[in-house]
Amino acid sequence: MTAMSYTIQYLQSEMAAQGLEVIVLVNCLVQDAIRLGASDLHIEPWEDAIAVRARVNGVLTEVARLPLDLLDKISMRFKVMANLVTYQAGTPQDGAAVGGPELDNVQLRISIFPTVRGEKIVIRLFDPRDRRFDLNTLGFEDSTCHGLLRLLERTSGLLLFTGPTGSGKTSTMYSSLCHIIQRDGSSVSISTVEDPVEFNLPMVSQTQVNPAQEFTYAVALRSIMRQDPQVVMVGEIRDPETAAIAVQAGLTGHLVISTIHAGVSAGAFTRLINMEIEPFMLASSILGVMGLRLLRQNCPGCSQPCEPTPSQLKLVPESVLPEAQFRRGQGCDQCNQTGYSGRVPVSELLVVGEPFREAILKKMPTSALEEIAVQQGMRTLWQNGLQRAITGQTTLEETIRVFAAGVG
To answer: What is the DSSP string of 182-203?
Structure first.
């Protein structure tokens, strides 16, 4: 990093030399994460030091290394902030805190986990200043955006989102709900079941599950059906019971929006069939599946034309090479010498049509389902990611890094 971190400045200051204040040190750690635009802050005991790393644009970046003897004090401070049990050190704990004005009022989700070297602390940061959920500003491909808006006009059925943690699924679902509210106003009833509730949405009844009290997704979803909702958002379909209720709700006049873990959009059907959901119910209830990833975006301040390596160019169809405008950030103060600034979404939207329904009924494998979806007009994650590189929004190297498994 070019600019010296707040943490290092403080550790080198006279105030710290006179007696280190752990409250000030923890504030500096969080301020560093905020300054970098990080989504998460990792504080982890290594062999000879505490490693402090921030996840910036999806990649961990080292912020500082601290003496190991500070670990207990730092852990204690975060426990106090999150109202956790301060005298327990051998069990995982999770909590939340809101930073004061000195921390830009960010919301902190704090997770403390025991390791053999001491407690590891991971803090997820939510910036209240970045609470606009607008589908038109998320940066999706035009075809995806238009297709998603058409699906959100439906009054019943199941709309699923897939992608790894931190790929933008929650932001997309929240934006979808806000679009429905903006379109229909107070005439629509929307309920959510989440774990946890990440942001409070206007005009939406949001519920947080509590497995410790046996208030699970399935229990909450079954009860919420008696609340006369028109639109239901389920944070995640993770077990057969929740899947069965969500599919049934989609068949009985509700628009259900949820996420499911699958490598590609077509994989969602295989996953649900493995949860013992009958193929004919999937074919009748699922409207579409949207796969999501995020690519680091070239820094606008220092990106320049570049020539990818021959091995990278082999993965690009020859027909598009003449129009390709490959670029790479050289590194500057604006992007902390990384060459990247912010992230851009890449998506694939699988809209279920008649040929695809027939393939589901035949229990075709994921690869065959994906092939049919492409024949019906779906652009894959790899195709859309490659387009981002060809137009210079990101590097070809970054696209290959994120989609390496899907190349070919």
So the answer is: HHHGGG--EEEEESS--SPPTT
363: pLDDT strictly greater than 60: yes
Would residue 342 be called left, alpha or beta, if left means φ above 0 and alpha means ψ between -120 and 50 degrees? Answer: left
Q: Are 32 and 54 in contact (CB under 8 A)?
A: yes
Of 33, 26, 40, 24, nearest to 5 by C-alpha is: 33
Prediction pTM value: 0.88
Is the peptide bond between 164 and the residue preceding it cis, with omega within 30 degrees of 0? no
Res. 3: pLDDT tops 80:
no
Three-point CA angle 34, 35, 38, nearest 5°: 50
Asked if 394 contacts 296 with a C-beta cutoff of 8 angstroms, the reply is yes
The per-residue pLDDT for range 309-357, each reduced to its tens digit, is 999 999 999 999 999 999 999 999 989 899 999 999 999 999 999 999 9
- C-alpha to C-alpha distance for 381 and 379, rounded to whole angstroms: 7
